[in-house]
Design a protein that fits this description.
The chain is of the alpha/beta class. The protein has 15 helices and 13 strands. Helices cover about 40% and strands about 25% of the residues. Strand 12 and strand 13 form a beta hairpin. The termini are far apart. The model has no long low-confidence stretch (mean pLDDT about 95).
Length: about 350
Protein backbone atom coordinates (compact mmCIF):
# COMPACT_ATOMS: atom_id res chain seq x y z
CA UNK A 1 0.00 0.00 0.00
CA UNK A 2 1.29 3.45 -0.93
CA UNK A 3 0.65 5.87 1.93
CA UNK A 4 0.55 8.86 -0.42
CA UNK A 5 -2.25 7.23 -2.45
CA UNK A 6 -4.26 6.60 0.71
CA UNK A 7 -3.87 10.18 1.93
CA UNK A 8 -4.76 11.48 -1.52
CA UNK A 9 -7.93 9.35 -1.36
CA UNK A 10 -8.79 10.95 2.00
CA UNK A 11 -8.45 14.40 0.40
CA UNK A 12 -10.63 13.41 -2.56
CA UNK A 13 -13.30 11.94 -0.25
CA UNK A 14 -13.07 14.96 2.11
CA UNK A 15 -12.41 12.63 5.03
CA UNK A 16 -11.50 14.22 8.36
CA UNK A 17 -9.42 11.26 9.57
CA UNK A 18 -7.57 8.17 8.36
CA UNK A 19 -7.02 5.13 10.62
CA UNK A 20 -4.40 2.45 10.03
CA UNK A 21 -4.87 -0.67 12.15
CA UNK A 22 -3.53 -4.17 11.61
CA UNK A 23 -5.57 -6.93 9.93
CA UNK A 24 -8.01 -4.30 8.67
CA UNK A 25 -8.25 -2.21 5.52
CA UNK A 26 -7.51 1.50 6.07
CA UNK A 27 -10.57 3.33 7.40
CA UNK A 28 -11.69 6.89 6.63
CA UNK A 29 -13.93 9.07 8.78
CA UNK A 30 -16.24 10.96 6.41
CA UNK A 31 -18.86 13.36 7.84
CA UNK A 32 -18.33 11.77 11.23
CA UNK A 33 -18.93 8.18 10.02
CA UNK A 34 -16.31 5.44 9.62
CA UNK A 35 -15.96 4.17 6.05
CA UNK A 36 -13.88 1.07 5.22
CA UNK A 37 -11.77 1.47 2.06
CA UNK A 38 -11.32 -1.23 -0.57
CA UNK A 39 -7.59 -1.45 0.18
CA UNK A 40 -6.13 -4.78 1.31
CA UNK A 41 -5.76 -5.41 5.06
CA UNK A 42 -2.23 -5.04 6.40
CA UNK A 43 -0.38 -7.44 8.69
CA UNK A 44 1.50 -6.12 11.73
CA UNK A 45 4.79 -6.27 9.81
CA UNK A 46 3.40 -4.54 6.71
CA UNK A 47 1.75 -1.84 8.79
CA UNK A 48 4.93 -1.14 10.74
CA UNK A 49 6.88 -0.88 7.47
CA UNK A 50 4.38 1.62 6.02
CA UNK A 51 4.37 3.77 9.17
CA UNK A 52 8.13 3.66 9.76
CA UNK A 53 8.59 4.62 6.11
CA UNK A 54 7.36 8.16 6.86
CA UNK A 55 9.43 8.66 10.04
CA UNK A 56 12.88 10.17 10.41
CA UNK A 57 15.51 8.33 12.44
CA UNK A 58 14.96 10.77 15.30
CA UNK A 59 11.17 10.22 15.21
CA UNK A 60 11.69 6.44 15.30
CA UNK A 61 13.93 6.85 18.32
CA UNK A 62 11.39 9.03 20.13
CA UNK A 63 8.53 6.64 19.33
CA UNK A 64 10.43 3.55 20.48
CA UNK A 65 11.34 5.34 23.71
CA UNK A 66 7.96 6.93 24.50
CA UNK A 67 5.64 4.50 22.64
CA UNK A 68 3.74 7.62 21.45
CA UNK A 69 4.51 10.18 18.75
CA UNK A 70 2.68 13.27 17.45
CA UNK A 71 3.84 15.25 14.44
CA UNK A 72 2.56 16.99 11.33
CA UNK A 73 3.03 15.62 7.82
CA UNK A 74 3.12 17.75 4.70
CA UNK A 75 3.22 16.13 1.24
CA UNK A 76 3.76 18.13 -1.94
CA UNK A 77 0.52 19.32 -3.53
CA UNK A 78 -1.65 17.89 -0.78
CA UNK A 79 -3.37 18.89 2.47
CA UNK A 80 -1.38 18.63 5.70
CA UNK A 81 -2.01 15.91 8.28
CA UNK A 82 -1.69 15.79 12.05
CA UNK A 83 -0.33 12.32 12.78
CA UNK A 84 -0.43 10.22 15.94
CA UNK A 85 1.63 7.00 16.04
CA UNK A 86 0.81 4.59 18.84
CA UNK A 87 0.88 0.94 19.92
CA UNK A 88 -2.24 -1.21 20.11
CA UNK A 89 -1.75 -4.73 21.52
CA UNK A 90 1.88 -4.52 20.44
CA UNK A 91 1.07 -3.37 16.90
CA UNK A 92 2.37 -0.06 15.51
CA UNK A 93 -0.69 1.88 14.31
CA UNK A 94 -1.52 5.42 13.19
CA UNK A 95 -4.29 8.01 13.06
CA UNK A 96 -4.18 10.95 10.62
CA UNK A 97 -6.24 14.14 10.99
CA UNK A 98 -6.55 16.03 7.69
CA UNK A 99 -5.77 19.75 7.79
CA UNK A 100 -6.88 21.52 4.57
CA UNK A 101 -4.32 23.78 2.90
CA UNK A 102 -6.75 26.67 2.59
CA UNK A 103 -8.08 28.33 5.74
CA UNK A 104 -11.86 28.84 5.55
CA UNK A 105 -13.24 32.23 6.54
CA UNK A 106 -15.69 32.71 9.39
CA UNK A 107 -18.81 32.90 7.23
CA UNK A 108 -17.87 29.65 5.47
CA UNK A 109 -17.64 27.98 8.87
CA UNK A 110 -20.94 29.45 10.05
CA UNK A 111 -19.38 31.32 12.97
CA UNK A 112 -21.36 34.24 14.48
CA UNK A 113 -19.77 37.68 13.77
CA UNK A 114 -19.51 38.39 17.51
CA UNK A 115 -16.62 35.88 17.67
CA UNK A 116 -14.57 38.10 15.37
CA UNK A 117 -15.29 41.03 17.71
CA UNK A 118 -13.87 39.01 20.61
CA UNK A 119 -10.70 38.29 18.64
CA UNK A 120 -10.30 42.01 17.84
CA UNK A 121 -10.02 42.89 21.54
CA UNK A 122 -6.68 44.54 22.39
CA UNK A 123 -6.08 42.19 25.32
CA UNK A 124 -7.63 39.49 27.46
CA UNK A 125 -8.37 35.77 27.13
CA UNK A 126 -10.61 34.25 24.44
CA UNK A 127 -11.28 30.50 24.64
CA UNK A 128 -12.49 28.09 21.94
CA UNK A 129 -13.83 24.92 23.54
CA UNK A 130 -15.53 21.67 22.65
CA UNK A 131 -14.89 17.92 22.41
CA UNK A 132 -12.17 16.50 20.16
CA UNK A 133 -13.04 16.67 16.48
CA UNK A 134 -15.45 19.60 16.66
CA UNK A 135 -13.37 22.02 14.59
CA UNK A 136 -11.66 24.08 17.31
CA UNK A 137 -8.39 24.20 15.35
CA UNK A 138 -10.18 25.37 12.21
CA UNK A 139 -12.07 28.08 14.11
CA UNK A 140 -8.80 29.26 15.65
CA UNK A 141 -7.07 29.29 12.26
CA UNK A 142 -9.92 31.35 10.79
CA UNK A 143 -9.60 33.92 13.60
CA UNK A 144 -5.82 34.15 13.19
CA UNK A 145 -6.19 34.60 9.44
CA UNK A 146 -8.71 37.42 10.04
CA UNK A 147 -6.34 39.20 12.44
CA UNK A 148 -3.43 38.64 10.04
CA UNK A 149 -5.38 40.44 7.32
CA UNK A 150 -6.60 43.30 9.54
CA UNK A 151 -3.92 44.13 12.11
CA UNK A 152 -0.23 44.89 12.26
CA UNK A 153 0.67 42.59 15.12
CA UNK A 154 3.25 40.07 16.24
CA UNK A 155 1.34 36.80 16.61
CA UNK A 156 3.14 33.95 18.36
CA UNK A 157 1.50 30.54 18.06
CA UNK A 158 2.49 27.57 20.26
CA UNK A 159 1.20 24.31 18.79
CA UNK A 160 1.56 20.54 19.17
CA UNK A 161 1.96 19.92 16.30
CA UNK A 162 1.64 22.81 13.79
CA UNK A 163 -1.53 22.23 11.78
CA UNK A 164 -2.70 25.12 9.56
CA UNK A 165 0.30 27.01 8.17
CA UNK A 166 0.03 30.81 8.22
CA UNK A 167 2.01 33.30 6.15
CA UNK A 168 2.74 36.90 7.06
CA UNK A 169 0.23 39.42 5.69
CA UNK A 170 -0.17 42.55 7.81
CA UNK A 171 1.10 40.68 10.85
CA UNK A 172 4.27 38.77 11.69
CA UNK A 173 3.28 35.20 12.58
CA UNK A 174 5.67 32.87 14.39
CA UNK A 175 4.54 29.26 14.68
CA UNK A 176 6.43 27.26 17.31
CA UNK A 177 5.99 23.50 17.49
CA UNK A 178 6.28 21.80 20.87
CA UNK A 179 9.18 19.28 21.00
CA UNK A 180 10.64 20.64 17.75
CA UNK A 181 10.98 24.39 18.42
CA UNK A 182 10.42 24.32 22.18
CA UNK A 183 10.27 21.75 24.97
CA UNK A 184 6.78 22.46 26.31
CA UNK A 185 3.73 24.71 26.08
CA UNK A 186 4.48 26.27 29.46
CA UNK A 187 8.15 26.97 28.67
CA UNK A 188 7.33 28.45 25.25
CA UNK A 189 4.59 30.60 26.78
CA UNK A 190 6.94 32.02 29.41
CA UNK A 191 9.65 32.73 26.84
CA UNK A 192 7.31 34.28 24.29
CA UNK A 193 6.54 37.14 26.66
CA UNK A 194 10.08 38.35 25.83
CA UNK A 195 9.49 38.10 22.07
CA UNK A 196 7.38 41.28 21.77
CA UNK A 197 4.02 39.56 21.12
CA UNK A 198 0.74 41.37 20.66
CA UNK A 199 -1.27 38.16 20.29
CA UNK A 200 -0.42 34.76 21.79
CA UNK A 201 -2.09 31.58 20.56
CA UNK A 202 -1.93 28.49 22.76
CA UNK A 203 -2.86 25.27 20.94
CA UNK A 204 -4.21 23.78 24.15
CA UNK A 205 -4.21 24.85 27.81
CA UNK A 206 -3.18 21.46 29.18
CA UNK A 207 -1.60 22.01 32.58
CA UNK A 208 -1.50 24.31 35.58
CA UNK A 209 1.64 26.17 34.51
CA UNK A 210 0.31 26.85 31.00
CA UNK A 211 -3.05 28.07 32.34
CA UNK A 212 -1.34 30.29 34.93
CA UNK A 213 1.04 31.88 32.41
CA UNK A 214 -1.76 32.40 29.87
CA UNK A 215 -3.85 34.21 32.50
CA UNK A 216 -0.91 36.40 33.46
CA UNK A 217 -0.20 37.25 29.80
CA UNK A 218 -3.87 38.15 29.26
CA UNK A 219 -3.80 40.39 32.32
CA UNK A 220 -0.66 42.22 31.25
CA UNK A 221 -1.83 43.65 27.95
CA UNK A 222 -1.71 40.71 25.52
CA UNK A 223 -4.55 39.05 23.66
CA UNK A 224 -4.40 35.29 24.36
CA UNK A 225 -6.38 32.83 22.23
CA UNK A 226 -6.49 29.24 23.45
CA UNK A 227 -8.47 26.00 23.27
CA UNK A 228 -9.83 23.69 25.96
CA UNK A 229 -11.59 20.32 25.77
CA UNK A 230 -14.65 21.51 27.71
CA UNK A 231 -18.29 21.38 26.51
CA UNK A 232 -19.51 24.83 27.58
CA UNK A 233 -18.59 28.12 29.27
CA UNK A 234 -19.54 27.18 32.88
CA UNK A 235 -17.47 23.98 32.76
CA UNK A 236 -14.61 25.88 31.13
CA UNK A 237 -14.51 28.35 34.02
CA UNK A 238 -14.73 25.56 36.59
CA UNK A 239 -11.96 23.59 34.85
CA UNK A 240 -9.60 26.58 34.98
CA UNK A 241 -10.34 27.34 38.64
CA UNK A 242 -10.11 23.67 39.68
CA UNK A 243 -6.71 23.31 37.99
CA UNK A 244 -5.23 25.38 40.83
CA UNK A 245 -4.70 24.26 44.45
CA UNK A 246 -7.42 25.48 46.87
CA UNK A 247 -5.28 28.23 48.42
CA UNK A 248 -4.84 29.88 44.98
CA UNK A 249 -8.38 29.58 43.70
CA UNK A 250 -9.67 32.89 45.08
CA UNK A 251 -6.88 34.76 43.31
CA UNK A 252 -7.55 32.81 40.08
CA UNK A 253 -11.24 33.79 40.18
CA UNK A 254 -10.20 37.45 40.34
CA UNK A 255 -7.70 36.98 37.50
CA UNK A 256 -10.22 35.14 35.34
CA UNK A 257 -12.97 37.67 36.04
CA UNK A 258 -10.60 40.44 34.96
CA UNK A 259 -8.98 38.79 31.92
CA UNK A 260 -11.63 36.62 30.28
CA UNK A 261 -13.27 38.21 27.21
CA UNK A 262 -15.37 35.33 25.92
CA UNK A 263 -15.89 31.59 25.50
CA UNK A 264 -17.02 29.91 22.29
CA UNK A 265 -18.14 26.28 22.61
CA UNK A 266 -18.86 24.27 19.50
CA UNK A 267 -20.17 20.99 18.10
CA UNK A 268 -19.95 19.54 14.59
CA UNK A 269 -23.19 17.78 13.66
CA UNK A 270 -24.26 15.66 10.68
CA UNK A 271 -26.56 17.46 8.26
CA UNK A 272 -30.09 16.21 7.74
CA UNK A 273 -29.39 15.32 4.09
CA UNK A 274 -26.46 13.12 5.14
CA UNK A 275 -23.91 15.19 3.22
CA UNK A 276 -21.38 17.11 5.31
CA UNK A 277 -21.55 18.53 8.81
CA UNK A 278 -22.64 21.85 10.28
CA UNK A 279 -21.29 23.89 13.19
CA UNK A 280 -23.42 24.60 16.25
CA UNK A 281 -22.07 27.18 18.72
CA UNK A 282 -22.62 28.54 22.20
CA UNK A 283 -21.22 32.04 22.76
CA UNK A 284 -20.57 33.69 26.11
CA UNK A 285 -19.46 37.32 25.99
CA UNK A 286 -18.01 38.40 29.34
CA UNK A 287 -20.11 41.32 30.56
CA UNK A 288 -19.72 43.11 33.93
CA UNK A 289 -22.50 40.86 35.27
CA UNK A 290 -20.67 37.69 34.23
CA UNK A 291 -17.39 39.03 35.65
CA UNK A 292 -19.20 39.40 38.96
CA UNK A 293 -20.56 35.82 38.76
CA UNK A 294 -17.02 34.51 38.16
CA UNK A 295 -15.63 36.50 41.11
CA UNK A 296 -18.34 35.10 43.38
CA UNK A 297 -18.06 31.64 41.74
CA UNK A 298 -21.79 31.66 41.09
CA UNK A 299 -21.09 29.54 38.01
CA UNK A 300 -24.51 27.90 38.09
CA UNK A 301 -26.06 31.28 37.16
CA UNK A 302 -23.99 31.70 33.98
CA UNK A 303 -26.32 29.66 31.70
CA UNK A 304 -29.18 32.05 32.59
CA UNK A 305 -26.91 35.04 31.89
CA UNK A 306 -26.07 33.59 28.45
CA UNK A 307 -29.74 32.86 27.75
CA UNK A 308 -30.74 36.46 28.50
CA UNK A 309 -27.66 38.04 26.90
CA UNK A 310 -28.68 38.03 23.24
CA UNK A 311 -28.30 41.82 23.11
CA UNK A 312 -24.56 41.30 23.71
CA UNK A 313 -24.31 38.59 21.02
CA UNK A 314 -24.65 35.65 23.41
CA UNK A 315 -26.31 32.42 22.40
CA UNK A 316 -26.88 29.08 24.15
CA UNK A 317 -26.09 25.77 22.49
CA UNK A 318 -29.76 24.75 22.83
CA UNK A 319 -30.83 27.91 20.96
CA UNK A 320 -28.31 27.19 18.21
CA UNK A 321 -29.57 23.59 17.91
CA UNK A 322 -33.16 24.81 17.81
CA UNK A 323 -32.36 27.20 14.96
CA UNK A 324 -30.53 24.53 12.95
CA UNK A 325 -33.43 22.11 13.40
CA UNK A 326 -36.12 24.64 12.50
CA UNK A 327 -34.17 25.52 9.35
CA UNK A 328 -34.14 21.83 8.45
CA UNK A 329 -30.32 21.70 8.57
CA UNK A 330 -30.19 18.93 11.20
CA UNK A 331 -32.68 16.21 12.15
CA UNK A 332 -34.82 16.20 15.29
CA UNK A 333 -32.86 13.13 16.49
CA UNK A 334 -29.55 14.97 16.16
CA UNK A 335 -30.91 18.04 17.92
CA UNK A 336 -32.50 16.20 20.84
CA UNK A 337 -29.37 14.08 21.34
CA UNK A 338 -27.27 17.21 21.92
CA UNK A 339 -29.52 19.65 23.80
CA UNK A 340 -29.00 20.11 27.54
CA UNK A 341 -32.64 20.76 28.51
CA UNK A 342 -34.62 18.27 26.44
CA UNK A 343 -38.03 19.07 27.93
CA UNK A 344 -37.66 22.80 27.36
CA UNK A 345 -36.47 22.09 23.81
CA UNK A 346 -39.58 19.99 23.08
CA UNK A 347 -41.83 22.71 24.48
CA UNK A 348 -40.14 25.34 22.30
CA UNK A 349 -40.71 23.33 19.20
CA UNK A 350 -44.20 21.95 19.99
CA UNK A 351 -43.61 19.65 17.04
CA UNK A 352 -41.26 17.00 15.76
CA UNK A 353 -41.08 18.66 12.33
CA UNK A 354 -39.06 21.62 11.08
CA UNK A 355 -40.99 24.80 10.37
CA UNK A 356 -41.70 25.50 6.71
Amino acid sequence: MELRDLLLLSVQKKASDVHLTYDSPPILRIDGKLTVTNKDPLSREELKKVIYGMLTDNQKEVFERDKELDFSLSLSGMDRFRVNIHLQRGSVEAAFRRIPIFIPNMSELGLPPIIADMARKPNGLVLITGPTGTGKTTTMASLINLLNEEKESVIIMIEDPIEYVHFNKKSIIKQREVFRDTNSFSEALKRCLRQDPDIIVVGEMRDLETISTALTAAETGHLVLATLHTPDAPQTIERIIDAFPPHQQQQVKLQLASALQGVVSQLLLPKADGVGRVLSTEVMVVTPGIRNLIREQAIEQIPTAIQTGSAYGMNTMDKSLQKLYQEGTITYETAIANVKNKEEFRQLLNSGKPKK
